[in-house]
Amino acid sequence: MxxxxxxxxxxxxxxxxxxxxxxxxxxxxxxEILKMLAKGKEFGINTKVRITAGEVKxxxxxxxxxxxxxxxxxxxxxxxxxxxxxxxxxxxxxxxxSGSFGLEALSRGANSATFVDAAKDAQYCIEKNIxxxxxxxxxxxxxxxxxxxxxxxxxxxxTYDIVFIDPPYKKFNKKNVKEIQNVLDSAKMVLPGFxxxxxxxxKGTIILKHPRRYPIENLELNNLKKVETINFxxxxxxxxxxx
Length: 243
Prior knowledge:
Elements: H1 5-17, H2 23-38, E1 49-50, E2 60-61, H3 72-82, E3 90-94, H4 100-107, E4 112-116, H5 120-133, E5 139-142, H6 146-153, E6 162-165, H7 178-188, E7 205-211, E8 224-232, E9 235-242
Parallel strand pairs: 3-4, 3-6, 4-5, 6-7
Antiparallel strand pairs: 1-2, 7-9, 8-9
Helix pairs in contact: 1-3
C-alpha cells in the first residue's frame, strides 16, 4: 500500500483548486534565477520558517545561509495531503537544510526523523532547531553526502517510511537527468516496500521538491509510481509510491 485513500483524495482536490502565478510573472522570475545560477550563486529565499501545526506549532526555525528553505506554504500543502500517513512513521529528510520537513513531521506525530546534509551550517541549524523544539530523543543528524549515506544504507535492514528530498538547484540538469534519477533509485531502497521480507502495509513514499520546469517525466524509475506533481510558481513537488 502507498498513500492512504484520504491522502490520494487530498491530492486530487489540491490540484483542482491550486492557483499559480501568471505566465508573465513566472517567466520573469525564472529568468532572474537562471541568471543567478549562471553566476554560480545559490538561490535563496528571505523568509521565516516555522512549524505550522502539531505539538510545537509556531516554533520558528533557524535557516542556513544560501539555502532555499521549505516554506510554510509548501509544508502545509504536503502535510495536508499526507494527513494520516504521518503519525508513527519514520521519516528521512535528505538535503535537510534547516530540518524543516522532519521537524514538522515530528510535530505532527511521526515516530522519528533522520536528517542528512553535508553542509556544516546545515548541521548547526538542524541541531539548534532540534534543541529548540525538544525532539532530542527521536532525531538523528548525519553530516554526510546524501549519495554516500544512501549507498551505505542500501544493504542494511533499516527502513524509513517517508523520504523527503530537496536537492540544491545545481543538481537539476535538464539535459541529463541521471543525477536525480540515481538519488531516487537509491532512496527507494530504504523504503519498507523494497526490503526483503518486510510485511509492513505501508510500503513507503518519496517526496521530491524540484524546479517546476525540470523534466520530471523523463526520469526512468522502476517500482516507483509518480502519483502527482503539484506546481507552486517556480517550484514543484512530485510524490512517488512503491508499486
